[in-house]
């Protein structure tokens, strides 16, 4: 994991190489740092998504959570986040989880940070 910006446009968006395409190995969750931001790579049904690592509710480390059925569960309060749009499960009233698309390319995993 190099976490170093490879390409920057307009000083606002950075395309960052996270590591080789098989970086997660057999894991479902993998904490990484990209562009100085602590993130969590999540494998779900053949795709990989990056999410902010701290829960927006109380800051719990989501790398200790679980990914089940397209949702990432917080280990502290058991709310879950939809991995399509970051929305929190019913009954909770705080902001959505920030998600970042991950590109799987022949030269590795890439993320676009804004």
UniProtKB/TrEMBL annotation:
GO terms for molecular function: 2 iron, 2 sulfur cluster binding; metal ion binding. Residues 15-111 form the Rieske domain. Pfam families: Rieske. Keywords: 2Fe-2S, Iron, Iron-sulfur, Metal-binding. InterPro entries: Rieske_2Fe-2S, Rieske_2Fe-2S_sf. This is Rieske (2Fe-2S) protein. It comes from Methylobacterium variabile.
